[in-house]
Amino acid sequence: MVEAHNTDQNINIGEIVECTVEQIMPYGAFVKITKTGRKGMIHISELSYSFVKNITDVLNVNDKIQAKVIKIDEKGRIDLSLKQTQEPPAQQARPLRRAPFREGTRENFRPPREPREGMRDFHEMQEAYREANPEEADSFEKKMSAFLKTSEAKITDLNTRNSARSGRNTRRRNNNSRDY
Predict the structure, then answer these.
(1) What is the 3-state secondary structure (H, E, C) of 78-112?
(2) How far apart are CA 97 and CA 5, in angstroms?
(3) How many degrees, rounded to 5, is the angle at CA 31 between CA 18 and CA 10?
(4) Measured distance CA(44)–CA(63) in Å, rounded
(5) Which of 11, 19, 54, 147 is deepest in the core (most CB within 10 A)?
(6) Neighbour count for residue 72 (Cβ, 10 Å)
(7) Are 83 and 42 in contact (CB under 8 A)?
(8) pLDDT in single tens digits along all 180 residues of the chain
(9) Contact 17/65 with Cβ under 8 angstroms?
């Protein structure tokens, strides 16, 4: 029969226990729980609310600390947290970021502005310009078409040269590897 290990010798999840630091590793600290003599581990992410690069900045061997039991797994291993015994730091007020307005989102976003009187949207302005300057609009289209044709011709030429080069190398390799 398998026992449930959510409690272990009067240790409950959520309880704050007194511990002694026995060993420090790069990923956390192993502690001995004074009440039971059992070992537990405090992961580096559970040491402090701020970033901890080096565990010895927070703990040293033989330090007496109080930690909160956060997990006891099916094998009886005990995970502890030092930061959960501390008061969390006050949240710094962050400025609201502007995001596109969507129906049903938070109320602090403004809907898109209605066009002001006398303003036209981009497409109206573009159409008006094409009507006023038909020769330039056509000339742009012609320039773009010529550019695309030239680009395609250059790409085709480069591909042809590369395939010819790789073909020569293939023939040379094949000639060198023949058995005579």
Answers:
(1) EEEECHHHCCCCCCCCCCCCCCCCCCCCCCCCCCC
(2) 46
(3) 50
(4) 16
(5) 19
(6) 20
(7) no
(8) 333 444 446 788 999 999 999 999 999 999 999 989 999 999 999 999 889 899 999 999 999 999 999 999 998 899 999 999 988 887 766 666 665 555 555 555 555 566 666 666 667 777 777 777 777 666 777 778 888 888 888 888 888 888 877 765 555 555 555 554
(9) no
